[in-house]
């Protein structure tokens, strides 16, 4: 009998996994869900508490299920879930979280694990989001707070529909140690899981559905898109005041200052209490800074010092292991949340603090809680690790939401479900090139990333880094250790001021593009691979063109890791230290130089030599960029701001400009407006522009409008 059972179980294990029919249900237009086995109650979406924006998803319309359903396999064997999704020949994959060195993910083996980034794209990263996007125009999301192992087109099954052909290594020089694989396979260490397929038809549509499913992208307050300086960790209130005054005097924009660990009486572990020697009167200090148009953002990590006043009360609700001898609050327990966030609500936000940088929720294994740690809620250390970043983002953001006040801050860890949380990822890794690749990859995962500037060896490096951070979700210097300032290199101080001011001038554009992230799910900074038409072209051109005759064909087939889209119209191609020129791939359609309006190219690879003071930026034909004067601080709610609207190229253009009070959640109750900007050519050949009127009773902050038709 025992033998028979053994045989039977062996048989079951060897059965083609496709034996069981799967039952996908469409939960919103173009989004299908499948539950297999017994999915765990705690997952990424419950941790993030995200709510789908169903009406926005509906606006994307219906689309067919993008995969052959019979080729998807999901089964539970011995307490683990095995998943298989088919792949076409030549189908490229993107995503699987915040990778730093690669954009193409087909052929990778990853273990998705929240961690600091250790220099390899192996799944251990600050946001190992279990969502991938296919160049064929769909996405797959596995909603599990477990360490998922991914074989992204690496494993070959005996029952594969498109098996690799055995080749003789002795005689065949095409023999490969990595035979062809026709599937993404995943192992989820849990007795079941829920997963989702997101339809397109384009890769960008799949990403939009994913972001809207997570509640839509975050809409920062206007000030969040200005400039931010994080000051040295031991700065006092007076040092901060002096620094803000210097920004003002030198005419560098500044919207918020980040205080690093020294504002707290103890850090690593933290007390969350003001250090009274450096900040004797926190409330007066914060108010004083606010009156100067500069907000305060506080660094913290969540590990509770035994000397924190909250320690004795929160101790019963903390994990078995410490981080730097600090207790780890189990933030899934309501009482722990209440106790933990109380001091934040009263002593920080209550006196006017505008946001947080929540550090150290990612890794590293040598100091974070180990996988053998236990938590009073009964959740495992693994589940905590995968979701702690989401928990702190959501819960801190709610403190602001309760006051009808928006925030925008920094987080070291995130995961799927977090798109709507107003936080930007950062780390200590500091490779300029890889920071740009991370910015590109963030767009496949519903997260934001800043290529922060810290210190530099040369003025060239300083300016190059500064240029790219001004074309990112958070324009920031993080001087916590270096004490650098924008003017640290006098020889490029003017150029740095120019680009910081350009960041401010572009605020109407950035703000609108973030509104689109929120209302339509379109990532404001995104990979070329999400550019409509770019992918289709890649395939077509690569197949048909001779590479020698058409270098574009060669280039687009490659991984694009160093140029990206910024908003609807802009293509940004940063330069790195040592480069004086670079190649830029301009997709089909005409492109124009952002600074001069001159024609730059059309569906081709160009070489640019921009000089040190310019970051190459190109505008699509018909592109409209609404700009404002270079204010040193973001406009206040209701403040009228003059617009300087630029038009590029030969095509007429149309742009929806977003407007609201810039600070509250009243937009969720309809207090916002979209104004149509139109640029057309008159019969006499002259360009003319118009802005539609604001609806009655809706926000209207547009002052005087001037037009700049950039292409002569
Ligand atoms: C690091 C963080 C830095 C800075 C520093 C302060 O973990 O990445 O940006 O905040 O801590 O100790």
UniProtKB/TrEMBL annotation:
One of its GO terms (molecular function) is hydrolase activity. SUPFAM superfamilies: (Trans)glycosidases (SSF51445), Galactose mutarotase-like (SSF74650), Glycosyl hydrolase domain (SSF51011). Keywords: Glycosidase, Hydrolase, Signal. Residues 557-625 form the Glycosyl hydrolase family 31 C-terminal domain. Residues 78-147 form the Glycoside hydrolase family 31 N-terminal domain. It comes from the Bacteria. CDD domains: GH31_N (cd14752), GH31_NET37 (cd06592). Residues 219-512 form the Glycoside hydrolase family 31 TIM barrel domain. Coiled coil: none annotated. Belongs to the glycosyl hydrolase 31 family. This is Glycoside hydrolase family 31 protein.
